[in-house]
């Protein structure tokens, strides 16, 4: 018996890459899965039903249950329709994996308005659209005395945690997803719902064009996108009820727990600071820490 037997899951952007692996693992653990994917290009153009349908076919061939959804997750109606499809088809919803994404990397001085808007829309609004409608559903269920264990698993990025040059739009959206995760964790805890986020690193069409050579070497393939899926499945289980509002970097066999923003230096007085006083107390505020751009702790 799988660890997600009897559960119903939605995975957005599950037609390829990391989302596909997540959908396959959730299904093999017994969850019935709504496989969402618009089937567009990496830059977010076009649509194609084939990727989502292929993953559904794969799940069914392995003996699992799944249904395809081709809605645009970056629209409010897309989020509403996905949640409705899960509940109408399988009678309930337990797990929402927000994963869909696109890329429009450019330096800030070269970025077009549409690059900013489209990346924000697909990642940030695309994470909130289904979350909004799932939260309505879970709150209604809890108020009706039907306490489901709800699980939201969001997809942030180290670009969002640390800020990556060339990704103003993407990094800002992914940082927003981290903040959204904390908000949802606080708001939905009382209804038996947790919200956590992963910041994955894996070989997909998204990274093959930017990270250089990610080909599998002898032994453990650290870049395999399937390495990311187990932590998502683990967070989705009933046993993970006590894990809420957490962010994990996941890469190969490494899982890192990320600390939220926290104060690392404080100066305080019982009056307003003058500009000169602030300057004079800079060393007290920074201590031994550098006051330059914080390091990006990831090397590729
Ligand atoms: N691959 C990595 O190393 C890495 C690193 C950090 C974060 N991420 C994040 O992981 C997630 C998955 O990325 P991936 O690497 O598997 O890339 P991918 O391009 O293979 O997968 C993204 C999927 O989302 C779908 N999608 C895009 N817009 C959509 C929309 N509006 N509605 C529905 N589906 C849509 C695409 O069709 C695609 O199948 C993304 O959120 C990405 O930002 C990936």
Mean pLDDT, to the nearest integer, reads: 97
Q: Which regions have little confidence, pLDDT < 50, spanning 5+ residues?
A: none
Strand proportion, as a percent range, falls in 5-15%
C-alpha-based Rg, rounded: 20 Å
Number of domains: 1
Distance between the termini: 39 Å
What's the helical proportion of residues?
A: 25-40%
The CATH architecture can be named as: 3-Layer(aba) Sandwich
What's the total number of strands? 8
Structural class: alpha/beta
Main β-sheet description: 8 strands, mixed
- How is the largest sheet built, in terms of strand order? 3-2-1-4-5-6-7-8
- Quickly name the level 1 CATH class: Alpha Beta
Small-molecule binders: nicotinamide-adenine-dinucleotide
What is the CATH fold-level name?
Rossmann fold
| N-to-C SSE string, H for helix and E for strand | EHEHEHEHEHHEHHEEHH
């Amino acid at each position: 018996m799988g660890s997600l037997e009897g559960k119903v899951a939605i995975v957005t952007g599950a037609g390829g890459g990391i989302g596909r692996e997540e959908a396959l693992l959730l299904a093999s653990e017994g969850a019935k899965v709504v496989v969402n994917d618009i089937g567009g290009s990496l830059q977010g153009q076009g649509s194609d039903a084939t990727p989502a349908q292929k993953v559904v076919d794969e799940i069914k061939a392995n003996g699992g249950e799944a249904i395809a959804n081709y809605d645009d997750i970056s629209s409010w109606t897309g989020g509403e329709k996905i949640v409705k499809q899960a509940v109408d088809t399988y009678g309930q919803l337990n797990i929402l994996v927000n994963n869909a994404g696109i890329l429009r990397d450019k330096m800030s001085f070269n970025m077009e308005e549409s690059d900013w808007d489209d990346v924000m829309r697909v990642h940030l609004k695309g994470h909130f659209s289904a979350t909004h409608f799932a939260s309505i559903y879970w709150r209604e269920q809890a108020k009706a005395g039907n306490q489901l264990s709800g699980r939201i698993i969001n997809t942030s990025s180290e670009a969002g945690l640390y800020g990556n040059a060339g990704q103003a739009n993407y990094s800002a959206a992914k940082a927003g997803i981290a903040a959204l995760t904390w908000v949802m964790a606080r708001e939905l805890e009382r209804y038996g719902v947790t919200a956590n986020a992963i910041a994955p690193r894996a070989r997909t069409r998204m990274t093959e064009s930017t990270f250089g050579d990610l080909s599998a070497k002898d032994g453990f393939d650290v870049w395999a996108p399937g390495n990311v899926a187990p932590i998502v499945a683990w967070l989705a289980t009933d046993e993970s009820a006590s894990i809420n509002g957490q962010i994990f970097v996941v890469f190969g066999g490494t899982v890192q727990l990320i600390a939220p923003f926290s104060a690392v230096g404080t100066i305080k007085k019982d009056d307003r600071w003058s500009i000169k006083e602030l300057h004079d107390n800079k060393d007290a505020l920074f201590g031994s820490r550098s006051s330059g751009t914080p390091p990006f702790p990831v090397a590729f």
